[in-house]
Design goal:
This protein is mostly helical. 53% of the residues lie in helices and 5% in strands. Strand 3 (183-185) and strand 4 form a beta hairpin.
Length: 217
């Protein structure tokens, strides 16, 4: 399945590598995000474009800043912790430090399966665990599978678009995914349908009209 990825998304996947997906290796969400923040700090010190772009997209004090501006800010490791906290839907790092619970591994697997465009496997997973349709993320934003399909407001590395995404969304809704479920992002709470119109990735992938129609049907 062909998958659209913005250059920054692809670079972040390469930079973080297995740290992004091997969540089962960590006892808690907190332990995992600590490792990601440390890796981000390495990227900041090496002035990695994708990492600085990641900070510009999420750190509430540095939103929209250029690479040059961020370098001039002399960012710290605490800034990396704040950026990771914001990217994963938390207001501040102290909230992350309270996340001592383990991941919902079947839900994490389902997200990655969906974003790989593997509808056949996703159907198998949902048939074995129908609750996957309406689980909410362990992260602060509380996104559902439908929110991840909207490719807007969730972790930057997960903002990728398999070209069969409209078919996947159609299946999720028909199978019982709650279209009224809301995630916490951009200072408010939004359904996936409300986030899709402003999502650049489906537009760039050329599927925005078809995707929006699934939420509107």
């Amino acid at each position: 399945m062909k998958i659209y990825k913005h250059k920054t998304v692809a670079e972040l996947e390469k930079f973080y590598g297995d740290l992004l997906t091997n969540v089962g290796h960590y006892k808690s969400v907190r332990d995992h995000l600590r490792v990601l923040a440390s890796r981000m700090w390495e990227g900041v010190r090496d002035q990695k474009d994708a990492v600085l772009n990641e900070i510009s997209n999420y750190h509430w004090q540095h939103l929209g800043k250029s690479k040059a501006a961020l370098i001039a800010e002399d960012l710290s490791e605490d800034d990396c912790r704040q950026a990771i906290a914001n990217e994963f839907g938390f207001r501040r790092w102290t909230e992350v430090e309270h996340m001592g619970s383990p991941y919902n591994l079947p839900f994490e697997k389902a997200i990655n399966t969906m974003l790989a465009g593997d509808l056949t496997q996703l159907k198998k997973d949902v048939s074995q665990d129908p609750k996957l349709l309406n689980y909410k993320s362990s992260y602060g934003h509380k996104a559902t599978l439908l929110h991840y399909a909207a490719s807007n407001g969730v972790e930057l590395w997960r903002q990728k678009v398999p070209l069969n995404l409209p078919d996947i969304v159609s299946y999720l809704i028909e199978a019982g995914a709650n279209t009224r479920a809301k995630m916490k992002v951009y200072g408010g709470e939004y359904t996936a349908a409300e986030l899709v119109p402003s999502s650049a990735h489906p537009i760039n992938a050329g599927i925005i009209t078809e995707l929006r129609s699934q939420f509107d049907s």
